[in-house]
């Protein structure tokens, strides 16, 4: 599968969306929910908790960083921003309990 094969019913969620740092580097959730230590496995676990059928992509390059950071393809149930916020909050809550 390539990124161009995604249909309108799937979203690609880059790991950079959830990591600390400025929005210019890719962060798309509130700074209070961001975490520099998030892994691809953490993101997959969060997507599974919401029943989004996650499919990890390990060897993909995020365009803004030009480095292989990984992404997860999930089912689209809400808008991309709503999905990002829900997953970000889930990750924040589970980070605090670990």
Automatic annotation (TrEMBL):
Pfam families from the UniProt entry: SRP19 (PF01922)
An individual GO BP term: SRP-dependent cotranslational protein targeting to membrane
Coiled-coil residues: none
One GO CC term on file: signal recognition particle
GO molecular function, one term: 7S RNA binding
SUPFAM superfamilies given in the database record: SRP19
Name this polypeptide is given: Signal recognition particle 19 kDa protein
Organism expressing this protein natively: Sulfodiicoccus acidiphilus
Lineage: Archaea, Thermoproteota, Thermoprotei, Sulfolobales, Sulfolobaceae
């Amino acid at each position: 599968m390539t990124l161009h094969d995604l249909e309108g019913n799937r979203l690609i969620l880059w790991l950079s969306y959830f990591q600390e740092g400025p929005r210019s580097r890719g962060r798309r959730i509130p700074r209070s929910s961001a975490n520099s230590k998030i892994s691809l496995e953490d993101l997959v676990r969060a997507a599974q908790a919401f029943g989004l059928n996650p499919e990890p992509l390990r060897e993909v390059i995020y365009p803004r960083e030009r480095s292989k950071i990984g992404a997860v393809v999930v089912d689209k149930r809400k808008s991309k921003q709503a999905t990002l916020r829900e997953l970000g909050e889930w990750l924040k809550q589970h980070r605090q309990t670990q």
